[in-house]
Amino acid sequence: MVIGKEAQVEEFALHRIGSGEAPSVFSDFTVTLNGEEEQEFLRKLFLKPFSNMAFTSEFTHAVSLEYNVLHGLCTEIQAGKDLLQCSEAIAKHLIDVSQHHNINGGDLYVAKFSAVQIGSAVHDAVGIYKFDEKEVFIESKLASGLIELSMKRGLGNNKPNKAVLVVFTEDAPTLFVIDDNNSTEFWQKNFIDHRPKNDHVNSTSNVLELTKSFITQQLPQDFVIAKADQIDLLNRSVQYFKSHSEFDKGEFAQEVFQDETAIRSFNQYSDRFQSENQVELADNFEISAHAVKRQARIFKSVLKLDKNFHIYIHGDRNKIEQGVDENGRKFYKIYYDQET
Q1: Structure confidence at residue 28 (pLDDT)
Q2: E strand or H helix at 227, and its extent?
Q3: Which terminal CB of the chain, N or C, has fewer other CB atoms within 10 Å?
Q4: Hey, is 111 helix, strand or coil?
Q5: Would residue 123 be called left, alpha or beta, if left means φ above 0 and alpha means ψ between -120 and 50 degrees?
Q6: Which has more pLDDT, 90 or 337?
Q7: Would residue 300 be called left, alpha or beta, if left means φ above 0 and alpha means ψ between -120 and 50 degrees?
Q8: CA neighbor of 304 nearest in space, from 231, 217, 236, 220
């Protein structure tokens, strides 16, 4: 989703978040590294962790967005306010919201970007990263004809324990959130305060999740349906998303389910799904290819027969026949044109 190949890390600041008796330390300078090797390293460190994310968020607040501290500080950075001053305020905000939690100390980086690509458009962005640990590495160098070795600690292939990338898209900032504990309240709610964004990325993911849930859970309750037919419906669902650039709910239901009774059941389940999960699903939206790629992994096309066989079904359902022999044993008959 996030493409950083052409992005530029304009500037970044580092602050040390204390823990227990260890005090926090705030830098009095920012860093700018314009060399291509340095930029490539920074892109890998700061942007690569978001490259496969298919879920987006946006800032929120229980009263009004103007009271969301992080939203205000990131907006000030994007508007050109001094990064050092804003980054120190971000660090102090994190300390304030986490002081009653047993959190690890670590390094907090705040970086400003240009030309971060989302879809086909590029945007400015602000990234905030908390690294709890550093990796150990050996540095070697030549000195007076001799090789010197030293053990050091630093960031290399580390992934941040917690991070948020704020991309200034046209309508409102789009957020990508990393949390190694998945749902840490002080990070997710108290520090960032965000909610799922109602955009085409989440719409694609949500409809795919809805469809999988309907086919595997609700449909067998409404109809007598063979497992192979369930897999066929899952395959057809994913194929629709892969072969279309726009989602149309009516068209989708007709192409996938075809039967009017099944379509009515799907529409009723869709209403219930939205209510229970507190999401709004549009009837029409642009399909996110990246979200399809991510979600398609959970659409399992495996037919498990006792503990003896696994049949992977990816294509024509008509080439599989199901039956019972004269001894009462169940069987599947599979037709094919070529063995590879």
Answers
A1: 94
A2: helix 227-243
A3: C
A4: strand
A5: beta
A6: 90
A7: beta
A8: 231
Return d(Cα 8, Cα 114) in angstroms, integer: 5
Q: Name the residue type at position 66.
A: E
Q: What is the pLDDT of residue 29?
A: 95
Distance between CA atoms of residues 220 and 223, nearest Å = 5
* Tens-digit pLDDT profile for residues 39-79: 999 999 999 999 988 789 999 999 999 999 999 999 999 99
Residue 162 buriedness (CB in 10 A; 0-12 / 13-18 / 19+): buried
Q: Number of C-alpha atoms within 13 angstroms, CB side, residue 144?
A: 0
pLDDT of residue 93: 96
Q: Which two tokens stand for residue 198?
A: 């109602």
Over residues 270-290, mean pLDDT: 90
Cα→Cα distances 263→62, 72, 337, 340, Å: 38, 45, 33, 37
Query: Which one-letter DSSP state was computed for residue 317?
Result: G
Helix (H, G, I), strand (E, B) or coil at 281: coil
Provide the residue ranges of all domains of the chain, joining segments of one domain with +: 2-197, 201-334
Instruction: Give which of 234, 246, 242 is closest to 287, Cα–Cα.
Output: 246
Q: In this structure, what are the phi and psi dihedrals at residue 4, rounded to the nearest 5 degrees?
A: -115, 15
Strand bridging mode 106-118 / 2-3:
antiparallel
Give tens-digit pLDDT for 116-162.
998 889 999 999 999 998 887 788 888 888 888 888 777 877 889 99
Residue 303 has pLDDT above 80, yes or no: no
Report in angstroms the alpha-carbon separations of 43 from 5, 10, 116, 144, 268.
8, 11, 10, 35, 45
